[in-house]
């Protein structure tokens, strides 16, 4: 491709065929050797990576650097723009809890948050009353990667659990901080999921531990001052196909053990009145039935799809008998209106729901049953429900934004219905919403469905097919991509791009059925929907095929690999971040962290020939063939436990071997990070600037 000139010969991975026979079908994988045999140990100590694999990844990085050398001034400009839109010394609005209010702030130039508290009704601007509980920048000194898991204070406000990952492998270490002295106690809890839940007396806490395959399989009870080896095992999940997490109630009455995969859930409860007891089962797991609990004093409120409630309903049950036979419906199922989550407080029940792609918050008076909604009038917007840290309250917190409107944070009185604007996101370098347009359009899919797409562009952008476009998609696990404010994409809009989000099947943007029709045997709908969005944007002259850059990450990276195979001529370039592209091999490897829990999402090709053939029909790596691929940028993380580094490495090797075009295939592996890339707020901006520079380059704007 003409925008990439005078490139050296790209790395060529050695072919070392490995055969695999399943269900009478034999496949050969030339690049299986890129998967390190000692990957579990390598995630904890990257220095032990096989030297041949390391040399190959480093050669790929060197080639990528040459290919992108001419964009370095642009990357610096983009980074400066994006950084200029961030209030560097920003502070959150503290959340009231007991005698204190807790929040976070950043300092100018700081990469990591600092956790603080002030007196309950103190002025957050008064630094003399602010106590810094944890300084993330200080903790990160000397570490090439550092990610905080947050800070959770005990009920008596004397101590806090905090966690960190300093390898990018998502094996978090927990520490306990004495909030009076600011010093950490001797307790060090290794290989956890990143958080803990305090017992009411503040003398012990519960946490989930990860096994050698990075699965949260056990819940332990730790007493302050004792070694981790003496922690009591509270519950062990023997089925590797289920995730597990531990949480607590606002009233400190219960410890919740949440066990689930992508379509089935089960809760076990431990009363804090007797923490030595066995956790009590709420409702036995039943395939396809999901439920979540929140405590409402003398009752539990249960959000569930039981009984055919595809878009969910809310039930209640007595606290002393939460078994399914005691469930009673309080919010009925409404087809097409998806209840996303729910919360309960002393006098109110509330939930966040989505209808026709737009969210609203519904509040019900628990005594009278009267309901009202919090909604907004823009064509496309995002709502976030934060709730409150205290049970006995009438005031909750929510956030609102749109593609053109910076985030606004409100306190809302559920009784008086009064909204109090607490904070509007500042854009220090300036932002005029009137300079931009947000649109919600619908692209006709192959089967007559209408695929929503959210667009952002400057008012002066010509809509004659000449504008470049970055088209983003995800489409998996029922995750919906909100139409929220994103200061980064303004750098593209200001350069004449149309920034578009395709709300493809596989998410829940149009209800639960939208998710079901984009998974398992219907997975290809996700890919076809994304191509349909590209077709619509081309036909309506928002852009043209020669100007569309596709972007997606993780499961969205699978989407990128699939559309590159299906319709390479419709994209000027493809950006695939930590792409899940080696789907069949990964789903056949039950030792990998996410494989057994992912079978309900993709299918189990080990047990089922039908699932095997279905996955094989679209798995991006397995379907690379001789055709003219557009420029492709793949990004991976060496210690990524979710999408392992070898997936993009193998994919790029095969693409480069098969493509019939001169367009470069680039691989960038972050040798110091995992799935989320760099953890620091400005380090992350550097990565986004790099991706955007690639997009701008391939449409000829550099």
UniProtKB/TrEMBL annotation:
Residue ranges of the region described as Disordered: 1-21
EC number(s) recorded for this UniProt protein: 3.4.21.83
Cited InterPro entries: AB_hydrolase_fold (IPR029058), Pept_S9_AS (IPR002471), Pept_S9A_N (IPR023302), Peptidase_S9_cat (IPR001375), Peptidase_S9A (IPR002470), Serine_Peptidase_S9A (IPR051543)
Keyword Hydrolase (UniProt): yes
GO molecular function: serine-type endopeptidase activity
Keyword Iron recorded: no
Keywords: Hydrolase, Protease, Serine protease
Domain called Peptidase S9A N-terminal: residue spans: 10-424
Residues passing through the membrane, by range: none
Family recorded in the similarity comment: Belongs to the peptidase S9A family.
Identification of the protein by name: Protease 2
Organism in which the protein naturally occurs: Rhizobium gallicum bv. gallicum R602sp
Gene: ptrB
């Amino acid at each position: 491709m003409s925008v990439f000139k005078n490139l050296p010969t790209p790395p060529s991975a050695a072919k070392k065929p490995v055969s695999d026979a399943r269900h009478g079908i034999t496949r050969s994988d030339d690049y299986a050797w890129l998967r390190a045999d000692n990957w579990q140990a390598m995630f904890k100590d990257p220095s032990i990576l096989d030297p041949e694999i390391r040399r190959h990844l480093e050669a790929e990085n060197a080639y990528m650097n040459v290919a992108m050398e001419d964009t370095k001034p642009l990357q610096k400009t983009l980074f400066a723009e994006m950084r200029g839109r961030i209030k560097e010394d920003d502070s959150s609005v503290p959340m009231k809890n007991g005698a204190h209010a807790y929040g976070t702030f950043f300092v100018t130039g700081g990469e990591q948050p600092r956790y603080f508290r002030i007196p309950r009704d103190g002025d957050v601007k008064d630094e003399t009353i602010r106590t810094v509980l944890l300084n993330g920048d200080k903790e990160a000194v000397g570490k090439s990667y550092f990610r905080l898991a947050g800070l959770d204070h005990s009920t008596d406000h004397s101590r806090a659990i905090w966690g960190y990952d300093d390898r990018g492998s998502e094996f978090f270490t927990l520490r306990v901080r004495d909030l009076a002295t600011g010093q950490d106690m001797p307790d060090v809890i290794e290989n956890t999921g990143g958080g803990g839940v305090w017992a009411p007396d503040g003398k012990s806490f519960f946490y989930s531990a990860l096994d050698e395959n990075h699965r949260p399989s056990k819940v332990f009870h730790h007493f302050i001052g004792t070694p981790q080896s003496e922690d009591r095992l509270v519950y062990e999940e023997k089925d590797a196909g289920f995730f597990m997490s531990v949480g607590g109630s606002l009233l400190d009455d219960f410890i919740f053990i949440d066990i689930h995969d992508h379509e089935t859930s089960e809760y076990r409860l431990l009363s804090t009145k007797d923490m030595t007891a066995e956790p009590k089962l709420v409702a036995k797991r039943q395939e396809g039935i999901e439920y979540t609990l929140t405590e409402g004093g003398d009752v539990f409120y249960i959000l569930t799809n039981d009984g055919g409630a595809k878009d969910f309903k809310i039930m209640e049950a007595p606290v002393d008998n939460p078994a399914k036979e005691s469930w009673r419906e309080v919010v009925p199922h409404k087809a097409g209106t998806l209840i996303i989550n729910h919360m309960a407080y002393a006098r109110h029940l509330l939930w966040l729901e989505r209808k026709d792609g737009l969210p609203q918050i519904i509040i019900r008076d628990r005594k009278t049953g009267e309901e009202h909604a919090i909604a907004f009038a823009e064509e496309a917007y995002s709502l976030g429900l934060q709730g409150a840290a205290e049970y006995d309250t009438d005031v909750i917190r929510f956030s609102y934004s749109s593609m053109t409107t910076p985030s606004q944070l409100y306190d809302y009185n559920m009784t008086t219905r009064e909204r109090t604007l607490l904070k509007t996101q500042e854009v220090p370098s300036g932002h005029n919403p009137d300079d931009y347009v947000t649109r919600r359009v619908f692209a006709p899919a192959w089967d007559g469905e209408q695929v929503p797409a959210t667009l952002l562009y400057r008012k002066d952008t010509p809509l004659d097919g000449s504008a470049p476009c970055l088209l983003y998609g995800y489409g998996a696990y029922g995750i919906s991509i909100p139409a929220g404010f994103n200061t980064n994409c303004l750098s593209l809009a200001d350069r004449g791009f149309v920034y578009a989000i395709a709300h493809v099947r596989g998410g829940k943007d149009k209800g639960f059925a939208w998710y079901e029709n984009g998974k398992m045997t219907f997975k290809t709908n996700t890919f076809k929907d994304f191509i349909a969005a590209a077709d619509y944007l081309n036909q309506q002259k928002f852009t043209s095929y020669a100007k569309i850059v596709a972007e997606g990450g993780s499961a969205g990276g699978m989407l990128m690999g699939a559309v590159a195979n299906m319709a390479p001529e419709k994209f000027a370039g493809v950006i695939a971040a930590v792409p899940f592209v080696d789907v069949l091999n990964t789903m056949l490897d039950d030792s990998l962290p996410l494989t057994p829990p992912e079978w309900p999402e993709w299918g189990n090709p080990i047990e089922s020939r039908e699932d095997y053939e279905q996955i094989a029909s679209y798995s991006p790596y397995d379907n690379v063939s001789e055709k003219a691929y557009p420029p492709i940028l793949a990004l991976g993380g060496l210690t990524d436990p979710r999408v392992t580094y070898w997936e993009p490495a193998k994919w790029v090797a095969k693409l480069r071997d098969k493509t019939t075009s001169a367009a470069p295939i680039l691989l960038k592996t972050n040798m110091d990070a995992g799935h989320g890339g760099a953890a620091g707020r400005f380090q992350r901006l550097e990565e986004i600037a790099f991706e955007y520079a690639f997009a701008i380059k391939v449409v000829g704007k550099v």
